[in-house]
Amino acid sequence: MLKRDLINEVSNQTNSLLKKDVEEALDIILDAIGGALSQGRRVEIRGFGSFAVRDRKARQTKNPRTGKVMNIPPRKTINFTMSKSLKAPLVEKN
């Protein structure tokens, strides 16, 4: 699902909100989540999941094409952990 699909879905389900209002609200939410993560804070959305910043250690890897060993520096990544209520229907489908 793309951002525009999400905007259309929310706009269709709420008759009183225009697409531009939904888009503005979604942008505010995403900016707040991004801002919190950039500060190293954890973001939890009950019933959906949580986002957290994790540190990855430096490591060495080999380029499969050339065989050259490359050093990958340490970096930060975003980890998403889904809630039990979101995970349960996904597990049941398989």
Just name the CATH architecture of the largest domain.
Irregular
CATH-assigned fold name of the largest domain: HU Protein, Chain A
Radius of gyration: 19 Å
Described by its quaternary structure, the protein is single chain
Strand order of the largest sheet: 1-2-5
Low-confidence stretches: none
Number of strands: 5
Q: What is the CATH H-level superfamily of the largest domain?
A: IHF-like DNA-binding proteins
Largest sheet: 3 strands, antiparallel
User: In what range is the share of β-strand residues?
Assistant: 25-35%
Description:
This protein is of the alpha+beta class. The chain folds into 2 domains: 1-40; 42-94, Irregular (HU Protein, Chain A), CATH 4.10.520. It contains 3 helices and 5 strands, in the order ααβββββα. It has helices spanning 3-13, 19-38, 84-93, and strands spanning 43-45, 49-56, 59-62, 69-72, 75-82. The strands form 2 sheets. It has a 3-stranded antiparallel β-sheet. Strand 3 (59-62) and strand 4 (69-72) form a beta hairpin. Helix 1 crosses helix 2. The longest helix is centred in the first third of the chain and has 20 residues, at 19-38. It is elongated.
